[in-house]
Prior knowledge:
With about 300 residues, the protein is mostly helical. Helix content is about 75%, strand content about 0%. The longest helix is centred in the last third of the chain and has 28 residues, at about 225-255.
Amino acid sequence: MNKLTGRFSSDTRSNPMFHVLALVIVAIWGITFISTKILLKSGLSPSDILFYRFILAYIGICLCSRPFKLFAYSLKDEFLCFSIGLLGGTLYFITENTALKYTMVSNVALICSTTPLLTMLIQYLLIKQTLPSGKVLTGSILAFAGVGAVIFNGKFVLNLNPAGDLLCLASALSWTLYTLVSKYLTDKYPAMFIVRKTFFYGLLTLIPFLAIQGSLTTSPRILLQPEVWSQLLFLGIVASFLCFMLWNVCLRKLNTIVLSNYIYLIPVISISASNLILGESLNAVIIAGTILVIAGMYFAGK
């Protein structure tokens, strides 16, 4: 198997378990925006949330790592572990959360959903593999159109903001590179080791951002609120530790581009969950957009 392209093996096509697992992961990631919003309203900053999310994930992964391998096999691989912590941890979350200060939520969701398209482009340009098949390309474009329909909900208002939109693009690019480097590492290391390295170096590279912020929120009055510690546990243990580990398992078994297409479901699930939790009804545009996303992922998956 090519380490970066991640072509299908014969058993992956016949076993839908990993596709179901990918669906569960993106469903959990889709509702994390609601948890983050609750924590922001409770007085935590984006850096605070990221720190507590990462430290909980790292503690969880350390407790479950047996045997506990400290370093990678080579200096090159250790540097790649550092890069996935920086890309998939700190840069991805910091750029995405900071972008919300400068541009509309719809812009953030739409631009960050370009990850599968960026994955195809980077694999073609850097890895020099053949272009994706017509079905994969058509499926990705259909899914992207579906995401746009759900986000804008029939009212296309794209207010361009260079700073915010470039941060969104940086976020999408960070996750794309994280996926490709992780794909390479999954052929050499267990998922548990890769995820532990991701959160260790994610915490390490988060320190400069905490220094810029000036302080870390440690107030018991805030942290001991049931809605705060419960959401932090969900983000740290479930959405980070478990989901990142299972995502790396899926990377080992599924084609990189096909797996990346599941990212299209995150804004769909996020918006749908927000509507349901807030008591708002799902309209025809959101339903049609969701159908487009599922149809696009079906074409790409085949």
